[in-house]
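Hypothesis: this fold can be encoded by more than one sequence.
Test: take the structure tokens below, design a sequence, compare later.
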């Protein structure tokens, strides 16, 4: 059992050496894009929700 675990951990170490991690600038740039996208979509959905709430409110008056 310990041999399988040891083999697995060695394989993990080899695979991690193959991974190309992004640079700090790439991570910061991607994070900015995600934040701006979330803000835009949140604003849009908030406006749609507000508009639909007003329409439903007018329909039931």
């Amino acid at each position: 059992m310990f041999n399988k675990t040891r083999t697995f951990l060695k394989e993990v170490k080899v695979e991690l050496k193959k991974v190309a991690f992004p640079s700090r600038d790439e991570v910061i740039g991607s994070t900015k894009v995600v934040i701006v996208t979330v803000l835009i979509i949140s604003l849009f959905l908030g406006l749609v929700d507000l508009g639909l709430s007003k329409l439903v409110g007018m329909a039931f008056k």
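The chain has a mean pLDDT of 96. Residues 24-59 form the longest helix (36 residues).
Hypothesis status: open.
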